[in-house]
Specification:
alpha/beta, Cobalt-precorrin-4 Transmethylase, domain 1, Methyltransferase, Cobalt-precorrin-4 Transmethylase, Domain 2, 2 domains, binds S-adenosyl-L-homocysteine
C-alpha cells in the first residue's frame, strides 16, 4: 500500500512549490492535479513514467476512487492542490475515505495565493501598531458561511482581509466593507493569477472604483482581494518602526539594551 500526499503546488510559478513537494512529485507513480487551478509547468519535476491526470471533470467520489486505486499500485501518489492544501480545498473530504481504508496520508504545505498576492503587489499584510491580524475569508455563495463569519462582521475589525473565491462578486464585497465602516477611499488591491508566468496582473484602486477596474481589465476569476490599513505603507514615512527592530524591546535571545530614546 502506497502513501497519498496532498501537496501544495504554490500559486502558479513552477519554482514556488516547496523543495519537499518537488521531490515527492519526482518520486510519484501517479499525480492527480486540478487542471483549472494548478499551472501545468509545476508538473515539470514529475518523472516520465508517472501517470498524470487532471481532476477537472471528476467529482469528489471519482477523485477518492482514483487516489485509492493508485495507492494500491504505487508507493507515492500525489494529489496536487493550488496554493496551500489546507485552505479552501476538500482535503478533509478526500482524506476521510483514505483514512478509513488505512491508506497513509501526508500533507506538504504550499505558498498560498494570499502570500503570493501580497508579494506580487509589494505589500505587507501586517504593519506595526496599524494592524497585526490577518483574516482569510470569502463571500458566502454555494458554500454556506457560518453565521458568525459574515464579511460585514469580520471586516468590522478593520484588520487585513485576504478575500478568496469572491472576485466574481466584487460589488458585494465592496458593499459589505462599506457596511462594516470602511471608507469608500480605502485602498484595495486585486491580484489575478499571482506569479503565473506572463499572466499575473495587479490592480489597485479604492473601494469606490475597484469593481470598475476589475471589469475593465476583465478580471473575474482566480484573483485575490486584499484590503488592509497596511496597504501602501511603503509610500508612507510616518509609520512607527516595528518593535522587532527596536533595540529597547527585549526579545528572547537578545537582552534589551538602553538606547537614548528608551527612557533609560
Ligand atoms: N488553496 C488555495 C486557495 C484555493 S481557493 C491557496 O492557498 O491559495 C481558489 C481561490 O484562491 C481563487 O478563487 C482565488 O481567490 C485564489 N487564488 C488561487 N490561486 C491564485 C493566484 N495565483 N492568484 C490570485 N488568487 C489566487
Amino acid at each position: 500500500m502506497g502513501k497519498v500526499w496532498f501537496i501544495g503546488a504554490g500559486p502558479g510559478a513552477p519554482d514556488l512549490i516547496t523543495v519537499r513537494g518537488a521531490r515527492l512529485l519526482g518520486e510519484a507513480g501517479a499525480i492527480l492535479y486540478t487542471g483549472s487551478l494548478v499551472a501545468e509547468t509545476v508538473l515539470q519535476s514529475a518523472s516520465s513514467e508517472c501517470e498524470i491526470a487532471d481532476s477537472k471533470s471528476m467529482d469528489l467520489e471519482q477523485v477518492t476512487a482514483w487516489l485509492l486505486d493508485r495507492a494500491q499500485r504505487h508507493d507515492t501518489v500525489v494529489r496536487l492542490q493550488t496554493g496551500d492544501p489546507t485552505l479552501y480545498g476538500v482535503l478533509a473530504e478526500l482524506a476521510r475515505p483514505l483514512d478509513a481504508a488505512g491508506v497513509p496520508v501526508g500533507i506538504v504545505p504550499g505558498v498560498s495565493s494570499a502570500m503570493a498576492s501580497a508579494a506580487a503587489a509589494g505589500e505587507c499584510l501586517t504593519l506595526p501598531e496599524i494592524t497585526q491580524t490577518v483574516i482569510f475569508t470569502r463571500l458566502s455563495e454555494r458554500t454556506q458561511m457560518p453565521e458568525r463569519e459574515s464579511l460585514v462582521s469580520l471586516a468590522a475589525h478593520g484588520c487585513t482581509l485576504c478575500i478568496f473565491l469572491s472576485i466574481e462578486r466584487i460589488e458585494n464585497v465592496v458593499a459589505n466593507l462599506v457596511e462594516a465602516g470602511w471608507a469608500s477611499t480605502a485602498p484595495v488591491v486585486v491580484v489575478h493569477k499571482a506569479t503565473w508566468p506572463d499572466e499575473e496582473l495587479v490592480l489597485r484602486g479604492t473601494l469606490e472604483d475597484i469593481a470598475a477596474r476589475c471589469r475593465e481589465a476583465r478580471v473575474d476569476r482566480q484573483a485575490l482581494i486584499l484590503v488592509s490599513p497596511a496597504l501602501g505603507a511603503r509610500a508612507q514615512r510616518d509609520t512607527k518602526p516595528s518593535k522587532l527592530y527596536d533595540a529597547a524591546f527585549p526579545r528572547r535571545f537578545r537582552p534589551a539594551r538602553e538606547t537614548p530614546d528608551s527612557g533609560g
